[in-house]
Amino acid sequence: MAHPDTGLRADPGSFRDPSNRVFHRDGEVLRGLDPRATADWRALAASGFFRALLAEAKVCGTEEVSATPPWSAVLRHERIPFVSHPYEWSFGMLRDAALLHLAILRAALDDGFTTKDGSAYNLQWRGAAPVFIDVGSFEPHCEGEPWAGYRQFCQTLLYPLLLQAHLGVDFQPWLRARVDGLEPDQMRRFFRGARRLLPGVLTHVHLHGAMQQRHARSTTTDVRAQLRDAGYSRELAAATVRGIEKLVRRLERPPGGSHWSDYQRTCGYSTQDRQAKERFVEEAMTGAGSPALALDLGANDGRYARIAARHAGYVVAVEQDPAVVDALYRALRAERERRILPLVMDLADPSPGGGWRGVERAGFAERARADVVLALAVVHHLAIGRNVPLAEVVDQLAGLGGPGAALVVEFVHPEDPMARRLLANKPDGLFPDYRRDAFERLLGARCRIIRSAELPSGTRTLYQAVVGG
Predict the structure, then answer these.
(1) In which residue ranges of the chain is pLDDT below 50?
(2) For a pLDDT cut of 70, what percent of the chain falls above it?
(3) Beta-sheet strands, E only, within 221-313
(4) What is the C-alpha to C-alpha distance for residues 380 and 423, in angstroms, rounded to an integer?
(5) pLDDT given at position 7
């Protein structure tokens, strides 16, 4: 919803808390506050713990600016380079996001504050570093009251981690299916019998679910009164947070590789091919000037995302396999990389719009308006592996960049060993148009082809093009 008089555009994902609302205007991210939220913000801004979080870059940069009616105060936040969703994160990313959320809550409690929410959507990323973005979630803590965000934290952070750590089940499809995350009733079905005794399950799944049922007919005021009468205190709340932190730190993704985790060794590239490909990408990125955003589709170990990051302001590295993304994330985190964001996503089934009215969480195509799109060793997996018509593949790649964007794409010839392996599992004659000349014609219809280069092996060709050029 836009406000023509002010140029403000309401963020479709910010409407659940009526006391504050996020807007966009001319590239700025603004938050309007009502009188009560204004008082909470000014107390927060004066607190020592919040100033420390800002200095340590654990909370997004925030400053108060001139108020715009009907709001009592307006905040301006730093702009996150690329907004992602928790179901696009790897296990390590979700765990580190959870740990940051808990560390911030613990610091807040120590200084007399708490957070109203516990959602994974309150966090975003600067490369491989998580950052808390929901400044409007902070409020003074009332003695004897429990953490209001505990249920959200369990459903969008802790439960997905337990699902993967204890059962080896990838959490991404479950989070994508429900914007509010996994319910305790769902989790109890997974953790019956001896599984009830796995770390964190009895307390945060079964006991939590039982307490919800017990208090289902009680008002929030009744529950708070019961907790105060039972001696619930801020110190006990902080101890509970420390206990959850300890649990989350112990959770690990079960070991085990995948086909894609060893792709760089098994894909059939010779040293000469790899070197030629790296030179081509480096030259293409140099020719693209200083792009703000680059996409690396099918990023695998991030080899080409790192090349892109030498030239682009920010790189989003997309890979289908959660295990591969997790390995890349851990490597980038160790490198303290702040300009490459790894994401889990199937390009044949990219993240759609979701949540309320399908727009609360924007789909990938809406968010990904890149200046450069790298699509290396991707086309054959979509066209042959997933039966997507070649014309549709080209349209998707061009659409992720938009007019004027640079496109670097690799076409794997039908006689290439990897293409032959994919074709061997398909009926004869199913892909008559999967040919180099057909691909060039389709690419030329959507883009201006600047140059091409055949790799030394003779079975793969690289193209540099400009969308709509």
Answers:
(1) 1-2, 4, 219, 223, 229-230
(2) 92
(3) 293-297
(4) 10
(5) 74
